Amino acid sequence: MTQQPRIDGRRWLETDGGPVLLCPVSLLSSWTGYNGDYDLVIEMTDAGHSESYILAERNVVILGDEPLPTTIIESRSLIVQWISGNSEEDMRRHASEIDLDAVAWRVGPVLESDGRFALMDAATPGDEARGEDTLVFDLGTGRFRLDSAEVPLAPHTAVKLHRLVLLTV
Question: pTM for this one?
Answer without folding.
Answer: 0.86
